[in-house]
Amino acid sequence: MNPAFHKTDYLHIEQDRHGPIRGRDIVIIGLQPWYFPTGCNAKNMAQELALHNRVLYVNFQLKRKAYLSKNPDSKIEDHVNILKEGRPRLREISNNLWEYYPKTLVESVNWLPTTGSLRVVNYLNNRRFAKDIREAAAELGFSDIILLNDNDIYNGFYLKQLLRPSLYIYYMRDFLQGYTYWKKHTSVLEPELIKKSDLVVANSQYYAEYSQSINPRSYYIGQGCSFEHFDHTKKFAVPEDISRTNGPLIGYIGALDSARLDLRIIEAIARAEPSWKVVMVGPEDEVFRQSSLHQLENVLFLGGKPFAQLPAYVQHFDVCINPQLSNEITRGNYPLKIDEYLAMGKPVVATRTGAMKIFESQTYLANEPSDYPALIRKALLENSPGLERERIAFAQSHTWENCIAELYKAISVVSKQKINS
Question: Are strands 90-94 and 146-150 parallel, antiparallel or unpaired?
């Protein structure tokens, strides 16, 4: 892996700035490994980037305590077994795309009392991680890499210095600083990471503006959606657990996370119209499980469902909702489910946040929990085939192809700036 930055590389990109970057070696790290069954932006981006480049998707390192556990979490069990059994750690996913299981273990750092002590241990973790990445890159013959860090503040913090990629890109799509668990250290480290990155890209305008206040080489690249799943042309059978439900179905799909969702909104909707059935599809956290919402007869908690089943629920909802709180976590967070709702042609009522600005013309936005019932009535009354077609067309402009095209443009802009500096 050549640690030097080559001006000619950027000239090549600049000459090709109106099309894809081609023939590069790209390494992606992030908060979610490839082997997790849930969807992930970085996985979609990797697949799109691999159409014209070679891409290595590096799973996160296992924490020592998790690895040594007699009963490891089922989500990481295969990774544990690969290491213990000495199985190959590099796996080809598709043409030009590989998944890698790091072998070195890391120490937990978030619990450390000071950010200074975290820096020391985290640097050692990053050195181990960098060694693993070098070995995988060498096995594939990668050189002069572009490194894309998917919102991984800790594991990616020192990799620019340790790996010396030709371009270090930080991808911001969540505000970890807003979570109590992460806030203490990430509120210090993330701005530093943003500042030292060669390029910062974000999936929401809000995060792009935040990053740009720290690093002028920050750009909004939009968000993609996998429309092969949320396909309005397919006819889905009514799911059994709502097949005998009467009255308009006001529905939500996604994790029922009390740090993001406002329970007052759900209650306001249910109490405003007892004939409405408020259908919540997704796993509940403890606050939701213990909430008085379970005492309301017209609020239906259906639990988590396989991703493949979600479009059937959305297709049979009359109105889709995103009853978010407005807080540090949600304010700039791109709500992918809005695209999924709109792709099925559904009217949508959601909380007004910074990230919802781009959906203003296609959704009904609430400023307060009490606004939801009236907006739902309006959505039910105004819905028409024409509006459904408009929503579908709008959603379908948010493709991964367009997202990566914007990433390529951002790379070209930063490339030109580096050449001229």
Answer: unpaired
A 10 A CB-CB count for 97 gives: 22
Q: Which residues pair with 253 in a beta bridge?
A: 281
Cβ atoms within 10 A of the Cβ of 419, count? Answer: 13
Q: What percent of the chain has pLDDT over 70?
A: 95
Q: What is the pLDDT of residue 421?
A: 64
Exposed/middle/buried for residue 261 (C-beta within 10 Å: 0-12, 13-18, 19+): buried
CA dist., res. 35 & res. 60, Å (int): 10
Closest C-alpha to 259, from 284, 296, 282: 284
257: burial class by Cβ within 10 Å (0-12, 13-18, 19+)? middle
Could you tell me if 59 and 102 are in contact, meaning their C-beta atoms sit under 8 angstroms apart? Answer: yes
CA 131/CA 26 separation, integer angstroms: 16
Kindly state the DSSP code that residue 261 receives in the 8-state scheme. Answer: B
pLDDT per position as a tens digit, 48-94? 999 999 999 999 999 999 999 888 888 899 999 999 999 999 999 99
Rounded Cα distance between 24 and 54, Å, is 6
User: What letter represents residue 165's amino acid?
Assistant: P
CB 255 within 8 A of CB 324: no
Residue ranges in 217-331 assigned as alpha helix (H)? 263-272, 286-289, 310-316
What pLDDT is attached to residue 7? 30
Q: How sure is the predictor about 162, in pLDDT bands with cuts at 50, 70 and 90?
A: very high
CA distances from 56 to 74, 172, 200, 299 (A): 24, 19, 20, 44
Q: Which of 402, 400, 421, 48 is nearest to 227 (CA)?
A: 400
Residue in the structure block whose two tokens are 């991680």: 129
Q: Could you give the CA distance from residue 52 to residue 69 in angstroms, rounded to a whole number?
A: 41
Instruction: Extract the tokens encoding 31.
Output: 């908060």
In degrees and rounded to multiples of 5, residue 324 shows phi and psi of -75, 150
Most distant CA atoms of the chain, gap in Å: 66
The 3-state DSSP class for residue 30 equals strand
pLDDT tens readout for residues 295-322 = 999 999 999 999 899 999 999 999 999 9
Rounded CA-CA distance 184/179 in Å is 9
Q: Nearest to residue 333, comparing CAs of 105, 172, 118?
A: 172
Q: How far apart are CA 8 and CA 166, in angstroms?
A: 11
**Counting beta carbons within 10 angstroms of the beta carbon of residue 19, is it exposed (0 to 12), middle (13 to 18) or buried (19 or more)?**
exposed
User: Tokens in use for 175?
Assistant: 């505000």
- For residues 394 and 391, what is the distance between their CA atoms, to the nearest angstrom? 5
